[in-house]
Amino acid sequence: SKQLRWLSSVLAGILMCKIVFDLTRVISASFIARYAKLNDKVKLEWNNRGFSTFHAIVVAAAALYLFLFSDVFANSPDYPIVFRSSPLSDAVLGVSLGYFLTDLAMILYQYPALGGAEYIIHHGLSMYSILLSLLTGQAQFYILMVLLTEITTPFVNLRWYLDASGLKTSKLYIANGVALFFGWLAARIVLIAYFFYHIWRHLDQVRKVFPVGFYSLIGVPGLLFLMNVFWFWKIAKGMVKTL
């Protein structure tokens, strides 16, 4: 039944992407005049960013619930945090895996229209980490913490939407750029720094993770952190230029 639940959540993630992709197309065509004037490639990315935004909101909300309101990861000396999981945490990881599979398939099929090599690396590392944690039931606390960084995605996508709509000089574009800067700093720099601090504080528990998982838990977020620092530098440059 656990394997069936995993498969169901992955398929639910793929179905979620398909439904939101179609809804984004229909709603945009009905209520956004600029959408009809876009070419097919831009429309494809427009709709693609619709389901990436939805995924980010769903995953971030679920992760925050598990961290703040659920007792799954509550402090307990009797059971190491790296071995804790629940049906909800499994479902969140499965849905997220379904999203990354769908998005990566679209990126590869339309390459490089929807993103270059850095997106393939990012998605590949994310899928590897999520799958490893889902199948073993280990380190889900830390994988969910990394997934929480997706909370910045709506700001990234809004920036692109405003640009594609010819609103790059609007006040909303500037305000969103500033929000993106501070959101990225908090979610993808400070949070990941805390991620490694938490591992260091609980190293006795983290060492109990199976060897491949342990080294992946250190290495993969480290690589993602370096990518996030590089993107943060580009965001900072863009914000300064815009201001």
Automatic annotation (TrEMBL):
Main location: membrane
Residue stretches spanning the membrane: 6-28, 49-68, 88-109, 141-162, 174-200, 212-233
Keyword Transmembrane helix assigned: yes
A single cellular component GO annotation: endoplasmic reticulum
TLC domain boundaries: 41-243
Highest taxon listed in the record's lineage: Eukaryota
Membrane topology type: Multi-pass membrane protein
Swiss-Prot/TrEMBL GO biological process terms: lipid homeostasis
Swiss-Prot/TrEMBL keywords: Membrane, Transmembrane, Transmembrane helix
Subcellular location field: Membrane
Protein name: TLC domain-containing protein
